[in-house]
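Before relying on records like the one below, remember that each one covers exactly one chain. Contacts with other chains, cofactors or solvent are not represented anywhere in the record.
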Amino acid sequence: DVTYCQDAVAVPLAATASNSSYTLYYYDAQGALLSGAPTPSTATVGTTTYQVAEGAGNQCISPNKKTVTVTVTAKPVADAGSDRTICTGGSALIGTEAIAGLTYSWASSPAGFTSTTANPTVTPSATTTYTLTVTNASGCKSTDQVTITVVPGSVDVTGCPTDITVCADTQNGSGVWGANVTWTPPSFRLSCETTI
């Protein structure tokens, strides 16, 4: 019998005849003769059965067929979280809550960060992409990535009635980061417009 992880690359089934002069004949789950050794599909989780028989020719095939079961095991879901922007010196929580039975492994580019926590807190000094690999009890793996963009901790914005300093990843009222924002000191509400 054969086991695959979902979406893994499968190879044709292989059996060994009891006599090197014999030919192997493969059948699908409905008993239909196949043209050769089948390559199982791993797209869908579940089991598929095949049968194999040997013979000296297609007129002399043994009635004693052997059953081969192919099992496709679900792969875990990897969720590294959403890309986001932070100021220099800031931190971000990446990943999601741990699920029992799964193991987690993080790596980064640029290199330097590793973790086996499902949702670690990171404090990158420069824009960094984090790659999460999740493995289940069957050894099946999935990966996902998240990029944390790091921008200067603050920028000076001038040209309004009173100059102020705002974080470069300030979020305006529409939920857009780094968009046009306006304010009226000292309440910092909208009145004159600039881009950060």
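The longest strand covers residues 141-151.
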